[in-house]
Amino acid sequence: MQFLVLLVGIIILLVLIIKVKMNTFVSLIVTSIIVALLLGMNPADIATSIKNGIGSSLGELAIVFGFGAMIGRLVSNAGGSYRIAKTLIDKFGKKRLQIAIVVASFIIGMSLFFEVGLVLLIPIVFAVALEADVPLLYLGLSMAAALSATQGFLPPQPAPTAVATALNANIGQVLLVGIIVAIPCVIVAGPLFTKLAQW
């Protein structure tokens, strides 16, 4: 029953976002209320449950995004972003900038949480795109693909580590297989997809 309600909730969320074109945040709230009612939750407790759920999620990210934004601003104001952008362009050339972004994002993604990596890399990607005069999404998608792949496939990130622990798998082997799987995923979802999307 609970799985069926979850499935209905996902369908409602997709319909609200894709078909109705409702704001994503509002769609999430509406779907949360509907799912809570379908699960038999007391209507008086729904608002508190949503508040606690959103609060606990945002609470973990507030410090990361707050300080990350300040660090990004300091790096940008000090000319660090420009320097990094210039170095990447000089070393890799405009034609291979996506490879540079993918490599940097992959390395950072292996050691940092997705949110932290995102906050650190966005100012650099902006600066590189501006300096090289290329579309932001051309580099941004490659960055997001590399960060996402590391979070999904490579220990010591929480999700793959939890899966490996639950299955009693060897962490070293999971990391090795994860790298083998992650590299083609990044290539397809990043550089290859941006080239196909231009057609």
TrEMBL record:
<feature type="transmembrane region" description="Helical">
    <location>
        <begin position="97"/>
        <end position="130"/>
    </location>
</feature>
<feature type="transmembrane region" description="Helical">
    <location>
        <begin position="5"/>
        <end position="38"/>
    </location>
</feature>
<feature type="transmembrane region" description="Helical">
    <location>
        <begin position="58"/>
        <end position="76"/>
    </location>
</feature>
<keyword id="KW-1133">Transmembrane helix</keyword>
<keyword id="KW-0813">Transport</keyword>
<protein>
    <submittedName>
        <fullName>Gluconate permease</fullName>
    </submittedName>
</protein>
<keyword id="KW-0472">Membrane</keyword>
<keyword id="KW-0812">Transmembrane</keyword>
<dbReference type="InterPro" id="IPR003474">
    <property type="entry name" value="Glcn_transporter"/>
</dbReference>
<dbReference type="Pfam" id="PF02447">
    <property type="entry name" value="GntP_permease"/>
</dbReference>
<dbReference type="GO" id="GO:0015128">
    <property type="term" value="F:gluconate transmembrane transporter activity"/>
</dbReference>
<feature type="transmembrane region" description="Helical">
    <location>
        <begin position="174"/>
        <end position="193"/>
    </location>
</feature>
<comment type="similarity">
    <text>Belongs to the GntP permease family.</text>
</comment>
<keyword id="KW-1003">Cell membrane</keyword>
<dbReference type="GO" id="GO:0005886">
    <property type="term" value="C:plasma membrane"/>
</dbReference>
